[in-house]
From TrEMBL:
GO terms for cellular component: cytoplasm. It catalyses: GTP + H2O = GDP + phosphate + H(+). Residues 217-296 form the CobW C-terminal domain. This is GTP-binding protein. It comes from Psychrobacillus vulpis. Signal peptide: none annotated. CDD domains: CobW-like. Gene3D superfamilies: CobW-like, C-terminal domain, P-loop containing nucleotide triphosphate hydrolases. One of its GO terms (molecular function) is nucleotide binding.
Length: 301
């Protein structure tokens, strides 16, 4: 399995600096990284941060969550088929919501190949102190990126006094009590800390206590063993807690030849017939997804 890290954070917070630093450390230990860069609002030359020997795909035409997951899937497919690498780093645009970015990356098609390790959010400490000057929508996004992180990089501490650093750290921890906070200048995050995060539930863990993981935004792959009744399935959807943010995949419905393409976001459901027989699997993204009982079964994998 290839570990995948999502680098999130507001515009100008230090994501590209983090990316360069991580690549350098991976290379030193002999691990081969590949990169997907989401360059909305950036200039293509930002990819110079990535050296020529690192496989790189750029998404220049829009942001991961807006251009839709198909484009992301195509990029991933090309990388997986055309390159050999051990770890994948995805730099999201500063304007991406973390749940949507994770959703775009986590397709059932790759669930057995890619292991989503989690979201690392770079928080610009200077900007944090000035957050009241942001518009409400921008501030909301800034806070959401921090709230959903599995690891927070509190960056630009060189621009703060000691007492400001203490205040910011305390406030960040209050917003996201679960994620470790690492204070940095120029996003110098040590690799060993980054490697500890885990955002994916693997089947064998569902009934075990995966300490810490239940609290986070995480994902889980569910495989259907037999067709399900559409009405039962939709009743089950209505009862889901609102901490299930997103589901997608292929559901085998009684009376249909092939599993149907299924999309679920913020309570809205979409079904589309599929011409090809796709594997009957869905990915569930949310908080505490290990507790979700899929039609009376915790896990039938
Ligand atoms: N003083 C200071 N400047 C920093 C630090 N980290 C990054 N910067 C600077 O902040 C600017 C933005 O850094 P990037 O790493 O490009 O940030 P980014 O999040 O990729 O930016 P976008 O691509 O605009 O989203 C650059 O000029 C960096 O040199 C830091 O810890 N302290």
């Amino acid at each position: 399995m290839i570990d995948v890290y999502l680098l999130s954070g507001f515009l100008g917070s230090g994501k590209t600096s983090l990316l360069s630093h991580i690549i350098e450390q991976f290379k030193k230990e002999g691990t081969k990284p590949a990169v997907i860069m989401n360059e909305l609002g950036k200039l293509p030359f930002d990819s110079r941060a990535v050296e020529a020997d690192v496989p790189l795909k750029e998404m220049l035409e829009g942001c991961i969550c807006c251009t839709g997951s198909e484009k992301m899937e195509a990029q991933l497919q090309m990388l997986l088929e055309g390159e050999s690498f051990d770890v994948l780093l995805i730099e999201t645009t500063g304007a991406a919501h973390p749940v949507e970015a994770m959703d775009a990356v986590y397709s059932p098609l790759f669930a057995s190949k890619l292991n989503m390790k989690g979201i690392i959010t770079v928080a610009d400490c200077k900007r944090w102190l000035d957050r009241d000057k942001m518009t409400p929508q921008t501030r909301m996004l800034f806070l959401e990126q921090i709230r959903h992180a599995h690891l927070i990089v509190a960056n630009k501490i060189d621009l703060l006094t000691d007492s400001e650093i203490a205040t910011v750290t305390m406030q960040l921890q209050a917003l996201n009590a679960k994620a470790p906070i690492i204070q940095t200048s120029n996003s110098k995050l040590p690799l060993n800390i980054m490697k500890k995060i885990e955002a994916t539930f693997h089947e064998k863990e569902i009934n075990e206590t995966a300490i810490g993981k239940q609290l986070f935004l995480s994902s889980r792959l569910h495989t259907f063993q037999e067709p399900v009744n559409q009405e039962d399935f939709e009743c089950w959807l209505k009862e889901l807690p609102d901490t299930v943010y997103r589901m997608k995949g292929y559901v085998p419905l009684v009376g249909h030849k092939n599993p149907l393409l299924f999309q679920y976001a913020y309570g809205m459901v979409q079904w589309l017939p599929e011409m090809i027989k796709m594997p009957p699997q869905i990915v569930i993204i949310g908080d505490q997804v290990d507790r979700i009982d899929v039609l009376g079964r915790i896990s039938n994998d």
